[in-house]
Design brief:
1 helix, five-stranded mixed beta sheet, binds calcium ion, six-stranded antiparallel beta sheet, mainly beta
Amino acid sequence: MCSSVTTLLLVTAAALTAGVRAVNVTSVITAPRTVLVGEKLYLPCQAEGIFLTCGWDSPLDEIIYPEDLTDPDGPIVPFPGFNCGIIVNEVTLEDSGHWACIATVEDGFDAQGGDVTVRPVSSWPGVVANVSSPLAGVWGEWGEVQLCPANAFADSLELKSEAPTTGDNTAANGLLLPCRQQGGALPTAITSSMGDFGTWRGLQYCPIPEYIDQFQLRVEPENAFDDTAVNDIKFTCTHYPEEVLSGGGETWGEWGDWASCPPDTAVCGIQTKVEPYLGVSGDDTALNDVRFFCCPTVW
Ligand SMILES: [Ca+2]
Ligand SMILES: [Ca+2]
């Protein structure tokens, strides 16, 4: 017993001497997060290096150790894939406050955490802004506004676009936005209206647990030949303004400026402007404009 403690101290001392932290805790709660009563609260945490214990310190100042959570049907279970992570299956208002993942060493600890706010289900404040691309096509009609469920936001996007053809081109035709609750579930997806042409270009995801908060459209101006209006979309996610994701559409036209949700909000709804099919002799354009709705991520 004496020798194992000695070994641990020696190894810890060696790690410190080498300029390496003996333990390094990483957690994805780096920004405030809101969840609704009854949702799951995902608390991923990974501890690397030499540590004695690790667990989550709750707002009630109880430390919950994943290794103690042996009942798979219990109210709190270990988070698979994370050595120090836990999942609270149904949050209550008492779970509001600061959560910190803590790993202890012989002479101290390392911790990472963030604030969680739990709201009653009825308190969804709804849309606070809508944002539109400064550059858009001139044809079509606005479709219905579709909103994510309460406390859910678009965390990914898929573009439907028609690859170049020798006939009448339409390029971008529509968008699909999966909505993810801050509690983690993927309950639904929203689209507003869509054109009849094109193929789905693959879902582009924000880094978990972020949401879409900015977009720009690539639009071909009206011309004397074959019009296509919207061709492609780019977007960025909360806390990752430098990481630009692309819809993978067509390449006619120019990129417009960014349309950005206000601070501490993210995309929770969509409305599209689509030109209805004009028949075999018409010059179709399909998708012409996009409007995103923004809801507060913390309230
Ligand atoms: Ca189009
Ligand atoms: Ca056309």
